[in-house]
Amino acid sequence: MERxxxxxxxxxxxxxxxxxxxxxxxxxxxxSVAVHDSDSSFSRSxxxxxxxxxxxxxxxxxxxxxxxxxxxxxxGTLSLWEEVGEDAHSVSWKQCKVFESSxxxxxxVQFGLPTRYLKMVAAYSDGLVKVYELLDLLxxxxxxxxxxxxxxxxxxxIFGKPTCITASVAWSPRRGESQQSRFALGxxxxxxQFNSCKIxxxxxxxxxxxxxxELAFPADTDDRVHALAWAPNIxxxxxxxxxxxxxxxxxxxxxxxxxxxxRLSTEKxxxxxxxxxxxxxxxxxxxxxxxxxxxxxxxxxxxxxxxNGVWQEQASLDCSGGQx
Length: 324
What we know:
There is one protein chain. The chain has 324 residues and is mainly beta. 1% of the residues lie in helices and 52% in strands. The longest helix is centred in the middle third of the chain and has 4 residues, at 192-195. It has one helix spanning 192-195, and strands at residues 12-17, 23-28, 32-37, 43-49, 55-60, 68-73, 78-84, 92-99, 106-111, 119-124, 128-136, 139-150, 164-171, 182-189, 198-203, 208-214, 227-230, 239-245, 248-255, 265-272, 279-284, 290-295, 299-305, 311-318. The strands form six sheets. Strands 1-2-3-4 form a four-stranded antiparallel beta sheet, with no helix packed on it. A four-stranded antiparallel beta sheet has the order 5-6-7-8, with no helix packed on it. Strands 9-10-11-12 form a four-stranded antiparallel beta sheet, with no helix packed on it.
């Protein structure tokens, strides 16, 4: 039985739930952000101005670092905001950090699960990838650029700067000090070398990021990536990553034990039909068993595999709350 949780104001452009699903933040076309809380039946608890331009995306920072969000504006500005206050009646949001670039726009940003350091990956409209590290776990304004590279497998060749429309980043959800830092990244650009989804992993011995796998067949490397999502893993011997392109939603299995060439083993298990128009977003549930997708056809689709590993669409919801 469906029920309405909250009514968003006019001009809402994006929405993001926090890690425990008790709060969500809404970005508006006037550059403001509103925060809604479950404690007050998801009514609005705060609203503050972030930028003169509209908010394109909001990402919550891991809860170990308090209540904080990253905001990407339409002009590509990335800013970090933190909730401060001694009690619930004196809460406000303050700006911690602004990442500005005069030559390119931030398209997507995601935070890795914290181990020794909190890492943040930002993908830019010129095809560059920047990895930042938080220097002080108590100060969200102290970040250091750790690495900067292009989303290409061939690091020797020189490529021109692409024009990227969108980008999608997904960190490996595996926790633990012994876990290697990994993330997946794909672009929607005018240069095919940048588009296909690559898995990047941090090589401790040489202190560098290297491409460990490419989730695309040779015939599909030209496909532009519209969205991707890395599934939580509860007991599987492999990882599951969903990648959306114009051809549909591909489900990949990835084994994290590198071969002699340092590359990860991968298998494309199915290509789901996706949406009638472009797929906009992919999200897994906490068990990593159900995949939700949204697209230009105005539908939210839920996908699952059965005990035989066959993937099927389980439900389809329209944006007005109807079920098909």
